[in-house]
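Troubleshooting log. The previous structure file for this entry was overwritten by mistake, so regenerating from the original sequence record. Sequence copied from the archived sheet and checked twice against the printout by T.R.
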Amino acid sequence: MRIPRTSTTRRPGAFIACTVVLCLGACTAAGPSTSTVDEKLLLGTWKVDLRPLPDADPYFQEFIVTSVQDGSFSGEFYGTPVTQGRINTDWGKLRIAFVTADGSGAYHHSAILQGARLEGLTNSTGREFLAYWSAVKQQ
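Regenerated output below.
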């Protein structure tokens, strides 16, 4: 049986070179960033939009960060104290996670600072929902 000659069988070196370049590009794009982010950017009052759907009217609450120290933070979200507030800046972005609670159970929150806006998720274990939220810092 004869194998038809394609561009990759005629020039295997070109195919291998392209594959190596693509793999190296993917590896460097996924690698950790060497830039540092100041975790104190989180301090202050944030206006949180908790609308349930993109086309719903805005529903605003506050996220107040009162202290930031050594990868942890304190404050309140939606009028409820933050517990287990954690900050990660190891990948060149400010990422946070924290827990709040009410009578229905725990709410696990996480967010990333994208420019001047926090983009977050809330997982309610008691009410069984996952919600998107965004926040901008108030001046």
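Strands lie at 44-49, 60-69, 72-77, 80-81, 83-88, 95-102, 105-114, 117-124, 129-137. Archived copy saved in two places this time.
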